[in-house]
Design brief:
binds manganese (II) ion, binds guanosine-5'-monophosphate, alpha/beta, 9 strands, binds sodium ion, 10 helices
Length: 254
């Protein structure tokens, strides 16, 4: 209950932070970032979302916090749009199924895009398979309406859910994101390698982009490149970091 009350105060106390983790192409150039929520707690320090996202979801605080994440990401996109070194970056944000299922979710995103003047096609929403277990047609309808604005969709944690693959044919996705649990074992586990290979092939045959997350080592990237995956995210390229650290890193590179 204490944690719950503190979470309710976090917004007013300005304790939310959006960290950014690079997403790179095969040459190692940063082409985008994933925004990852952190809670800067006065005593606990920087708290990771694994601890509080479940609580945000059971208390429905996920909706206002999710709004904050979207607004922050879009404001960043709008700022970067005027800066030659950052103008091409996309920003991906995680959207919880509860958040996506709000009746006014599409209107909220449209209002944020309008208010911030963010370039819509640089915003990528990361959704998970669990979103499509229920009310699939509603999810599809919302995705189509946002895609009309140019917003893009990535399927996060691909391969870790329990749903059938049939939904893939019906949803307007742009990207599959190979879960880090497969990527980390890709060199040493034939089964994981087979899963990653099949995912890359599936993405190619459905004309979807594919990104591997959790890439930590050169040998993993080399394996992925050999097997046709050309976009990566992971500690190998950078941890989730505050905005100033990201901008410093990118400025030093260019
Ligand atoms: O950044 P980290 O690896 O600690 O994230 C842990 C989990 O929290 C991941 O599953 C990630 O998708 C989730 N997460 C991070 N930021 C957000 C956010 O802004 N919204 C939601 N719904 N989940 C997030
Ligand atoms: O569920 P989602 O994919 O949104 O979560 C991303 C999570 O993975 C974040 O908590 C992030 O900190 C973590 N992460 C990102 N890159 C790596 C990596 O290379 N190795 C490990 N172990 N975790 C990573
Ligand atoms: Mn994610
Ligand atoms: Na993931």
């Amino acid at each position: 209950v204490r944690l719950e009350n503190e979470l309710r105060e976090a917004q007013a106390n300005d304790e939310w932070r959006l960290y950014y983790q690079p997403q790179v192409d095969q040459a190692g150039r940063c082409i985008g970032v994933e925004g990852l929520l952190r809670w800067q707690h006065p005593e606990r320090g920087l708290v990771s979302p694994g601890v509080f996202i479940p609580l945000l979801e059971t208390t429905e605080l996920i909706n206002p916090v999710g709004d904050w994440v979207l607004e922050t990401a879009c404001r960043q996109l709008a700022q970067w749009a005027h800066h030659p070194a950052f103008a091409e970056l996309s920003v991906a944000v995680n959207v919880s199924p509860l958040q996506f299922r709000q009746v006014d979710f599409v209107a909220k995103v449209e209002a944020i895009l309008q208010r911030t003047q963010a370039p819509c096609h640089k915003l990528k929403l990361e959704v998970t398979e669990s979103l499509f277990l229920e009310e699939r047609d509603d999810a599809r309808d919302k995705m189509l309406r946002l895609k009309q604005k140019g917003v893009r969709f990535s399927l996060d944690d691909f391969g870790t859910g329990y749903s059938s693959l049939a939904y893939l044919a019906h949803l307007p996705l742009d990207q599959l994101k190979i879960d880090q649990s497969f990527v980390q074992q890709v060199i040493h586990s034939k089964a994981n390698a087979a899963i990653v290979e099949s995912t890359i092939a599936l993405a190619q045959s459905l004309s979807l982009e594919v990104i591997a997350e959790g890439v930590e080592r050169d040998d993993q990237q080399a394996w992925l490149l050999t097997h046709g995956c050309r976009t990566y995210q992971g500690y190998r390229y950078g941890r989730p970091m505050p905005l100033d650290a990201l901008e410093a890193m990118l400025s030093a590179e260019s």
